[in-house]
Every structure is written in C-alpha cells, then in structure tokens.
Amino acid sequence: MQFINNWSRAVTLAPGVTSLALDLPDGDYRLTLADSQFTPTRWEIVGATVAAGTATLARGLEGTSDQDWPTDSIIYCTVTASLLTDLFARLAAAEGAITTNQQAISALDSRVTALEPAPSIVISSPEAAPMGYSAFNGFGVISPAGATVYPGGGPSVDGLGEITELAWSGDYPYYEALQLRVRGTTSDWPSPASLPFETLTIGATTFAKSDLSAAGAGDGSVVFAWYGVPGPFVAGDNTVTFA
Questions:
Q1: What is the rounded distance in angstroms from the CA atom of residue 125 to the CA atom of residue 64?
Q2: In which domain of life is the source organism classified (predicted)?
C-alpha cells in the first residue's frame, strides 16, 4: 500500500465504473470519494491500482457503497479506519512474534546452559601427604583464585563460599578425612545442609553432601569433613566440580 501527502483531485465517476485516469505514481492506494471538498455529506472508499496513469478501481470498500459521483465531487488520499485497524493488528502480531521469539531464545539459552558443563576448579596438589589445597596450612594451589562452592559460580576472592581448604591426608592433620574449609561464619553455614551443592567430585571420585559433617569454625571460615574416606587427590592437577 502506498500513500501520498496532500493529494486530491476533482472527479466525476459513474456507479460501476472501475477505470479512472489518475496522476499518481504506479502502485496500490486506498482512496476516498466525497461529494464536496468542503462540506461533504457522503463518501465511498475505493482501492486503486495505478499503472501508467490509469487506476483500476475496487469500488465500495470498508462498508461504503458504489455510488454516482457527479461534477464537484473529489477524490483524495487519506488514511482510513480499515488501514489503521490492519496496521495495529500487524503491530500486535509482530509484538507477539517478538515475545515468542524472546521466550524461545530464553528457553534455548537455558537448555544450552544445562548442557554446558559447569566451570571446573583445578587443584594442583603436592606429591606427598597432605594432598590437595590449603591456604590455612599453606600447600597446593587452587585455580581460579577465589573459587567457591557455588556450582557454576564465578570466583570470589575473600567472598562468601570461597574455598580456603580442600585437602586430605592419612594422618596429621586430617587423619583420613577430606576436609573442606569454606569462607563465612556459622551464621552463613550453620550445617552441611546449608551448603549450596549436593555433590563434590574430585577426579573420578564423588562425595555426597549428605555424608558431610561439621568439623569446626574459625579464622573467618567454617570447616566440614568427610571422615574415613580414601584420598581422592593425585600429585599434580585435579579437576574439582561442585554440583
């Protein structure tokens, strides 16, 4: 559909006539016929397909009737109720499609996130016991610095949930316990159940939170332990995942 500003012409048109010479650029238009330029009393809306100065008309559109337009009648280009209704319907449909697409993208993002493995933590362990990582006792390296117990969470140096120790030894200081020291207080982590993961996997060995015990608190951290478990660490790099 095409539009043209401030276009009107005097016209005479008999009922049923569907061809009319019009000085409009080629294209499809919605035009209005009226019986007077200044004091109209009746109207007819027509569709006009213009080619080489001749319009092929569709008469009596939008609830109007095919009528006789004698001398002093006028034809002009303006926006009609049907055009506006169609425009708003198309806008509503487009907005609905955008919303649907956004929902689909959001669902796809969720699926991709679910399919992507959670970011791994790497602990570079000493060769001899105690093995693992302990900022508290000064051995091993954790990467990234500030790694936390939040599954998929980014690092947070000195932040709540930061891992300050994940270590094991057969005797002193852990005595066959895998010890997890987490940044925070007993108000933050009052029990193993309060921790934000269900399982901890080190290499090929998985530990359930349900088997975890509280082991103490102090120095800005709370300590938990899996007691009586075999050592999960190898010398060098160990992949650690909370889920």
A1: 87
A2: Bacteria
Over its C-alpha atoms, the chain yields an Rg (Å, rounded) of: 39
pLDDT in tens, 28-38: 999 999 999 99
126 in the same domain as 25: no
> Cα torsion for 69, 74, 77, 83, to the nearest 10°?
-40
Amino acid 105: pLDDT:
86
Query: Which residue's structure tokens are 């238009």?
Result: 29
Rounded CA separation 126/233 (Å): 9
Q: Which domain does 156 fall in, by range?
A: 121-242
pLDDT digits (tens, 9 = 90+) for 81-122: 998 998 899 989 998 888 888 888 888 777 765 665 556 899
Neighbours of 217 (CB within 10 A): 17
Nearest to 200 by CA among 240, 232, 166: 240
